[in-house]
Amino acid sequence: MSESATIRIILPFHLRTLAHAESEITLDVVSPVTTRSVLDALETRYPMLQGTIRDHTTKERRAFLRFFACEEDLSHQSPDELLPQDVVSGKEPFVIIGAIAGG
């Protein structure tokens, strides 16, 4: 039997509006807890988010979204790298931020 962790996720306004969710949600994520497993669980629970955070085919992060945990930018790390223990324990959230561009 696989173990799971209850992960806190903070969504940006446009994604929580699309998902009809609060700014912070909790999800049970099967171990090992990685960015990929968190996003898989998020898209399973909120199927309307499929394709908005990651490309449908390649599963690569969309350019204008960033991932943070424990004040560290995880956006360019492997999606299979383990998340920090404070995220796995629920002490700290996994944060998805919509990047701002302008000129």
Descriptive report:
With 103 residues, this protein is an alpha+beta fold. It has a single domain (4-98), classed as Beta-grasp domain (Ubiquitin-like (UB roll), Roll), CATH 3.10.20.30. Helix content is 21%, strand content 25%. The protein has helices at 13-19, 35-45, 85-88; strands spanning 4-10, 24-30, 65-69, 72-73, 94-98. The model has no long low-confidence stretch (mean pLDDT 93).
Offer a quick outline of the entry.
This protein is an alpha+beta fold and 103 residues long. It has three helices and five strands, in the order E-H-E-H-E-E-H-E.
Which key phrases capture this entry?
5 strands; alpha+beta; Ubiquitin-like (UB roll); globular; 103 residues; 5-stranded mixed beta sheet
Which geometry do the CA atoms define?
globular
Number of helical regions: 3
Number of domains: 1
| Strands ordered across the widest β-sheet | 2-1-5-3-4
Tell me the span between the first and last alpha carbons: 51 Å
Helix content estimate: 10-25%
SS-based structural class? alpha+beta
Q: Approximately how much beta-strand content do the residues carry?
A: 25-35%
**CATH architectural grouping:** Roll
Summarize the topology:
Layout: E1 4-10, H1 13-19, E2 24-30, H2 35-45, E3 65-69, E4 72-73, H3 85-88, E5 94-98
Parallel strand pairs: 1-5
Antiparallel strand pairs: 1-2, 3-4, 3-5
